[in-house]
Here is the input.
Amino acid sequence: MYWDPGHPYRWRTWLRTKLPWFVIRIGFLNKAEDCAKVGGKHWWYKHDSSHSGCYHCKVVRAGRLWK
Here is the structure.
């Protein structure tokens, strides 16, 4: 994943990659609601065969935006 020093949720995503899964599953460091609402850029990954999800927030959109 790309590190964007100006992204408002970069630290949260970084912590999610370092902490044990059970800490995240109990609600600590959940994904943000929407990057665009706070001026951040979405960083897409393949959510499923027809949707893209953002690494930093809960937004999922139709299409292959990760390409």
